[in-house]
Write a structure and sequence with these properties.
This protein is mostly helical. Helices cover 85% and strands 0% of the residues. It has 8 helices and no strands. The chain has helices spanning 3-35, 40-71, 76-109, 113-116, 122-125, 127-144, 152-182, 187-208. It is elongated. The chain starts with a helix and ends with a helix.
């Protein structure tokens, strides 16, 4: 088995790890939303899945550079795939700096999202999961679809269009799941949620003025 074949196999494994970790993270996130809170065990699983994505990303990047050096040329498809991987990398950095700390804090406090203010932030932060999943599956498809005739710009336009649709769908679904869960909260808790929302609006209006 030559070096090119070894790098190619490792490259495919990197994409598979990234896509698998991203899918696991998204399903965990949906399960957490349905429960309206996150447990410590769920957060640990989320961190493991995130670690798998990072491992896949490192392997994919290293082998991608190796393939470029070995082959000496880069196809439009390969260049588009690595651009999408770069987007996934930046998105992963945002997830680790924005989303995971909030979920960890919520897990430690053992509070419902509607009682700790996360219900207002999760629909927007949920798009990070959408970017991760779409990016990794796009990389997986581009790696397998060798007969694709689209150029670099065409591939990215298709990717961005799919990404926009997925982000809207995720935001809508996240908001719906959170609202659905809020309706089943006991009345005193619902009142507390309403009171918190009103107080937050007054605070914003005060500072805006």
């Amino acid at each position: 088995m030559d070096l090119h074949t070894l790098l190619l196999i490792a490259h495919i494994i990197g994409v598979a790890l990234g896509a698998g970790g991203a899918t696991t993270s998204d399903f965990l996130f949906l399960s957490i939303l349905r429960n309206g809170r996150i447990e410590n065990a769920e957060f640990r699983l989320l961190k493991v899945a995130s670690g798998i994505v990072i491992g896949g990303l490192m392997l994919l990047t290293a082998t991608g550079i190796g393939l470029v050096i070995l082959n000496g040329t880069v196809s439009h498809r390969f260049f588009a795939k690595m651009t999408i991987v770069l987007i996934a990398t930046l998105n992963g950095g945002l997830m680790h700096s924005k989303l995971l700390p909030l979920l960890q804090n919520s897990a430690q406090k053992k509070q419902l999202f509607h009682l700790n203010g996360l219900s207002d932030k999760l629909p927007r932060l949920g798009v990070l999961g959408a970017v991760s999943a779409v990016s990794w599956y796009a990389a997986l498809i581009l790696g397998a679809w060798r007969s694709l005739s689209l150029g670099y710009a065409g591939i990215l336009i298709g990717y961005l269009a799919l990404l926009a649709l997925t982000m809207v769908a995720v935001m809508t679904t996240t908001h719906w799941l959170l609202q659905k869960h809020a309706l089943h909260l006991p009345q005193p808790k619902r009142e507390r949620v309403r009171h918190t929302a009103v107080a937050r609006k007054k605070h914003r209006a005060k500072h805006a003025g």
